[in-house]
Structure formats: C-alpha cells, structure tokens
Write a sequence for this structure.
C-alpha cells in the first residue's frame, strides 16, 4: 500500500510546477481507513489515495489542507480549498456558495456501538439518560431529537479514533462510529475486547463537491471522479484497505 501511495506521490510531484495545485480539504477528525495522520500530515488511507489519483489524472499537483471539521465549510466558502470529499448534501442543508456535486462515490453506515458484552441490540430511543460518544462538529440526524430532548447528551471528542478509545476505556457505554472505522479499530483487539455495533443509525451515499470557480477545472474533476467510480478504481482502493467493497443498497 505504501509503495502504491509513494508512486502516486511521485507522479503528482512530477506535474509541472506552473500548474496550480488542487487543494483538498482534509478533516482532522477522520481516522483510518479513511486517513492516517503522522505528525499532523495525511500519509495514506482510502481518501488520500483517491485524492492523489484524482489530481494525477486531472494533471495537477495535490495539496492537502488539514482542518478542524467545523472549519471545512468555511474554508470552502472563502476559497481556501477547492474540493471536499466524503460529504453529503444533507450534512449542510444551509450551504452557501456555488458548488457542484459529484455522483455518489462511497457508502457510509453510522452505527451505535458498545463494548463487548453489552446488550447486542439497542433501540436508541429507549436508552436512559446518559452521555454518548460523538465527534465534534458531526451531525447525527437519528440521535438529534434525543439530544434536543435532553434524553441523551453528546460527549464530543476531536476525532473518531478518540471516541472509540474512550468507549474502550469505559468513559461511556455507547458511542457512534462509521462501520469502516469500527472494523479497522477492532483489528488490533482480541475478540473478547472488540467493540460491537448495537444499532444502525443511518446509511447513505456520500461523494465530493467542488467549488465552482473558473480557476478550478471543475468539469475535468467531475468527469475524472465519474470515470474512477465506473471503472472500479475507487472500489479497488476501498478493497485494499477494508478487504471488501460494500455495494450500495
């Protein structure tokens, strides 16, 4: 995997220095298998591999801007970044600015999780008053009415991995994670320690959106993403990290 990433980096760096870079927003709340950070810089993962390949095929260098989740949309609106991936229109209903969305590229499943040995199936609406592990700035539509009513309280962590570490340490009984990150996290744990999904909260397709600016090769980006999805390239990147490609429902 690192060889493939290195090859993509080499190709990307070989692009003419006169070409303006394609600036990607990278949320610092992401975790593997989406993104791995080393000393605050993204080094590999499904999204990084996809972004590098996209920039290479478009013919421009890739530039990654690591931002807090709550700053990403503001950076898009102010022209600090050009492309945001792994997003859904429902996550920003009041989105301001001129953007064009790609076709759906990924399938995300959000699950309520607990430590091993807890009740295997749970109805969130029936949980007694307690804190739930969440990521700062993330929206959880299924749980929001319960947060609004005070039945459940958010306990935010900076990133998804911290949420899982806190759950494992017993800081709370339940937390929210996407399925990919949960599976990746469990790989390092013994079967009796692994965290378990107890309820599916939401399933949806996510993609990328591009700032509609004459300085950005918008149509080339969208055509390339379409080609990468239709050719199976994106699904192959997913398979390399997760061992499978989950078909959209």
């Amino acid at each position: 995997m690192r060889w493939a990433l290195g090859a993509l980096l080499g190709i990307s760096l070989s692009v003419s220095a006169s070409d303006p870079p394609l600036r990607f927003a990278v949320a610092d709340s992401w975790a593997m298998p989406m993104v791995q950070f080393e000393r605050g810089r993204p080094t590999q993962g499904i999204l990084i591999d996809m972004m590098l390949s996209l920039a290479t095929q478009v013919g421009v260098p890739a530039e990654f801007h690591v931002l807090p989740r709550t700053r990403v949309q503001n950076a898009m609106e102010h022209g600090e970044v050009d492309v945001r991936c792994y997003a859904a229109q429902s996550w920003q209903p009041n989105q301001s600015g001129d953007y064009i969305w790609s076709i759906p590229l990924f399938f995300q499943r959000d699950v309520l999780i607990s430590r091993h040995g807890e009740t295997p199936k749970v109805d969130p609406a029936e949980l007694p008053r307690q804190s739930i592990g969440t990521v700062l700035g993330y929206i959880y539509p299924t749980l929001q009415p319960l947060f609004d009513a005070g039945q459940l309280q958010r306990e935010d962590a900076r990133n998804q991995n911290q949420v899982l570490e806190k759950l494992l340490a017993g800081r709370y009984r339940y937390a929210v994670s996407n399925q990919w990150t949960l599976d990746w996290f469990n790989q390092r744990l013994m079967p009796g320690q692994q965290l378990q999904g107890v309820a599916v909260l939401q399933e949806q397709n996510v993609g990328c959106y591009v700032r509609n600016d004459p300085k950005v090769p918008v149509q080339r980006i969208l055509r390339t993403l379409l080609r990468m999805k239709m050719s199976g390239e994106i699904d192959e990147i997913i398979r390399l990290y997760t061992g499978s490609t989950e078909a959209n429902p």
Notes: Residues 3 and 96 are 40 Å apart (CA to CA). Helices lie at 2-13, 46-58, 72-77, 144-148, 160-168, 179-186, 218-230, 233-242. The radius of gyration is 19 Å. The chain is about 30% helix and 30% strand.
